[in-house]
Here is the input.
Amino acid sequence: MGKKKNVTASGIEIRKKPLGLRIWNHRGYYLMFLPVLIFLLIFNYWPMLGVRYALYDYKPVGEPVFVGFKHFEKMFSTTAFWTAFRNTLELSIVKLILSTFASVIVSIFLNEMGNLMAKKTLQTIIYLPHFMSWAVVASIFSLFLSPSSTGMVNGMLKEWGILAKDQMGIYFLADQGYWRPIYYVINLWKDTGWGTIIFLATLSGINPELYEAGDIDGATRLQKMRYITLPALGNTIITVLILNLAKVMNLFESVFVLYNNAVYSVADVCATYIYRQTFAMALPNYGYSTAVGLFRSMVGCVLVLVCNWASKKTRGRGII
Amino acid sequence: MKKKVLSLLLASAMVVSLAACGGSEEPASSNAGSSNSGTESNAGSSDNAGSSDAAEEFKLEKVTMVVNGTLTATVDNGQADFEKQWEDAVGVDLEIKQLDHSGYVDAVGRLFASQDYPDVIIMSADMYAQYAPTGLLWDMTEAYENADFQERMTLPAINEALKKDGKLYGFAPTYGNGCVTYVKKAWLDAVGIDASTVTDYDSYYAMLKAFHDGDPDGNGTNGDTYGVVAAGFLGNEAPYINYLPEFWQDAYPAILQDANGVWYDGFNTQETKDALLRIRQAYVDGAIDPESLTASTKIAREKWFSNDQTGSSGVFTYWAGSWYQTLTDNLIKNEVNEELVQLPPIAEVAEIGGYLNREAPVWVIIDDGDGDNTREQAVFDAFIETMMDGDVVQTLWTYGAEDVHWSTKAEEFVTNPGTDKEKTYSYEEGKFHLKQSPNDPNSVWKKNHLDPALVISPLTNGFKATGDLADAGNKFFTENCIDAPLSPASETYTNSTGDIYDAKMQVVTQVVKEGMDVDTAMQTLYVDVVGATIEQCLAELNG
Here is the structure.
């Protein structure tokens, strides 16, 4: 096969200048790019070389010792790792679906609000939790959900007669049955408002003539939402889902501040497992935690590629 | 084409960075300390390694120390003055790196991994047990035995117990200290219990129940208070059980040695199972604050001396000595009746010897691995020998900087002026006394790094300023304590401490909180999960 040539519409061949000359001609752009390239190499690529320690026993003291796939064998045979892996996927995916769904619903309601003042106020209120750090959020909810006599939620349950006065309060954040629902609720409270921004932007871009046409055809408000608003949001919903799906393995901070050893079986995720294996040991073996981290990154990488493929299929263009 | 160029660029960059990274690799343990010590050797290859003569030949210019929160002269609490006065007294530059107390283990690991070795560093007993066999810590046996403070030492057994195969890798300037059980006197009075009648587990438990079922805080509501609060049902560092000794009694849920020196697993024992059932019962009965399951020491402390005593507890087992004073001060600050009773060990605890005296934290010197001990000996002389000099430097470590934390000059100061807690302190010229804390003029400074009551070699200058309560607390503890079991150290144990602790916590939480059958929990959550690892640890320890 011959090399593809660049030709004009009239068939005149365009000959490319040599690479060196082209770089020289665009030296300003390359110069601007240079700091970024150096930054990327130093802070993104160089640290990646540390993944080789997944094949080593690497402790704070002594030289790293090559051990082959020993850490991977240990990892795959450890129940706690698989629990953390399963929890990561389950928590992330459920959280993603719930938060996307809630954001869409809230966006539609906000869009339907006629009173601009009330709409702006409500928007501000629901955006605010996003700006609170997870540590603060965890402290607030720990107080609310405390099982002791000072816990607000348990106090209310007793006041309403749901719990007997002398009954022990429910330890929501240390109960395997309650932890996940509580976790999802806290996430919804914190991030639903922020998640509406992209959907509200899409909604504001819908052609008003479509609604006018609906009015002329006698469509109810619900029918307009069903047949105009939701289809218009469809592409954005898929985009948001796909983009966030690529990040499901990154779950850490929100779990770390809310979990405890009573709920490891339903709350421990890969990143918190790595954290404990690294930072809770008097003499940690960074080799093992690197191996777990590498596996987690590889799964994340596969998810990104899957999302890219899904994006191409649904939107006609990839995300990378 | 553009993509090809970009790929080529990135690939080249990767190759370059790979080569750069590979070329700069150094063994983690080689030349440890040499980059930070700021020292110059003029001793050459000395044949007198380890001797004081050799140290005299070494010109030590700087000591870099890493410490946790046990140095109370923090940056905002007069550390610069402490450092300056230490440098003036010793004639060596001192660099202090004070790391976050709660993340200390992790921070030290990162320091070492990045080969950022200090000259001296403080380690907990757990850390010492793990690091001692690695070759990173200098064998200070000879230096210790030749030290000047030997002749003044009152507690030689403390450091003798730290020797591993006859070698001392870390120096403990104080004994470990431990926790004793404090009970709020006002609560005892409110429920009509005399502390002297609390002598065994049954009477102890009856007291806890009375605190929960009655209204000891006097808010008119029964059942909104608890018997005892603790930072976890099982601690994450040795001696593990010191926050709830009355429940754990003769159980020690860790690997320990029996009377014959044979290591065994103390977790999978009937004693531990019995202890778990006691805690379970207390959890169900409200005798123990349910938040103890997840509470940190800070949360447990603050709940206990909180201004609003609703949800608080009557009993708190916490550190002896100066903490007796600190807890009392906090109760006063929060306008809670401050009178406390130190509960003598109940019969079941007394049977094992009393409250546990934890293994002492130690100062270790990093071995630079050059086979020449002159630098390390010089660091020992400058840092550890002077820390125990009985005079100027030991006073710095004990009480802090002169005229900043303490003084002998005549002065008068007032704490909490204009409030009902206003107190005037007046001292004559020449009288040793502690001053107001640099960062809190409403409280009086207590101590710096060394607790004068716990130190193995006392001050010789007669300075003594410990409060009555701290003195009483230390005396009470020393009369009622026994040394905690030694921590184990083996390769498998080092690699698996996280997994073992997680498995233990699963058993504890499932039994205590969920009411799972203790034998089933022990088998399915512990033996089946880490049983083989424990066996391997024991084989290595006993091998």
Remarks:
- DSSP finds 19 helices and 19 strands in chain B.
- The CA atoms of residues 263 and 539 of chain B lie 9 Å apart.
- The longest strand of chain B covers residues 313-319.
